Description:
By secondary structure, this protein is mainly beta. Helix content is about 0%, strand content about 55%. A hairpin with a 2-residue loop joins strand 5 (about 60-70) and strand 6. About 25% of the residues are buried.
Amino acid sequence: TAPAGTTEFVMAVSESQLSVGPNGDVLSPHNTDSNVFSNGTQFFVQLIEVGTEGDPSENGSKIEVFWVSSSVEHLITRLFVDGISQVHQFPDISKARDGSTMVGNGSNTFLRVRRTRFSTTAKQIDFAVRGFTNP
């Protein structure tokens, strides 16, 4: 739940782009970008849900979440999954791993989720990022 006085944020994969890899809905790796964050809006991550369908090759998949600012990708987290669904909770983090604060500038700041397959078969890779913005 977003704290009082903030705005809930939810970003999820489009159902039409769920299958990633050759002969899937999209190629691997595949980026999904959020809308641009308005000037002065700070973003906080609370929860990331990820999952993939089973992979007989056991190669698995990777989901990376980035804060993008002026075309520079700042890694927030990297999750590896293989045939399971997981929920990862975060303590309302507002900085990427490199310390970059996630504050919008109204022109080129946004969230990016990159899904990558480690084998050549197409598999479903699902995600949802939940958090809030302030103000």
